[in-house]
């Protein structure tokens, strides 16, 4: 099957396309990735969608992700409470979106 795939792609001049879009926050990476994906007719995967799907799958990876997110939220809440002044509002735990470590991603 692999040989058939290679011959088919070679005969038609099809070669895999790998695109990396990088840059600082708010520079349009997601926008252009989405446009490229729709132009080539391929799926556009986002980290948040993949994390939500993993969490909803109910397997070990989803459990690990949920556990890590809760740990990171605890750390953020503790840091906020430590530096909080009396007039500062309470923190909304559900609105926190901690950065997932690369090893878990």
Describe this structure in words.
Helix 3 (47-57) crosses helix 4 (60-83). The two termini are 31 Å apart. This protein folds into 2 domains: 2-40, no CATH class; 47-95. The protein is elongated, with a radius of gyration of 21 Å. 55% of the residues lie in helices and 0% in strands. It has 105 residues and is mainly α. It contains 4 helices and no strands. The chain has helices at 2-12, 29-40, 47-57, 60-83.
Largest sheet: none
How many DSSP-defined strands? 0
How far apart, in Å, are the first and last alpha carbons? Answer: 31 Å
Report the principal-axis shape.
Answer: elongated
Strand content: under 5%
Question: Compute the gyration radius: what is it?
Answer: 21 Å
Mean pLDDT: 86
Low-confidence stretches: none
What is the tally of helical segments? 4
Domain unit count: 2
Helix proportion range: 55-70%
Helix and strand sequence: HHHH
Helix/strand layout:
Elements: H1 2-12, H2 29-40, H3 47-57, H4 60-83
Question: Top keywords for this entry?
Answer:
105 residues; mainly alpha; 4 helices; 55% helix; elongated
Structure described in brief:
The chain is built from 4 helices and no strands.
């Amino acid at each position: 099957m692999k040989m058939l795939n290679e011959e088919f792609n070679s005969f038609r001049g099809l070669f895999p396309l790998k695109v990396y879009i990088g840059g600082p926050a708010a520079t349009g990476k997601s926008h252009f990735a989405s446009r490229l994906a729709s132009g080539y007719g391929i799926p556009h995967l986002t980290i948040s969608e993949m994390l939500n799907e993993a969490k909803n799958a109910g397997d070990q990876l989803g459990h690990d992700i949920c556990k890590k997110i809760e740990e990171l939220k605890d750390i953020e809440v503790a840091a906020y409470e430590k530096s909080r002044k009396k007039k500062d509002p309470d923190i909304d735990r559900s609105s926190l979106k901690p950065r997932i470590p690369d090893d878990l991603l």
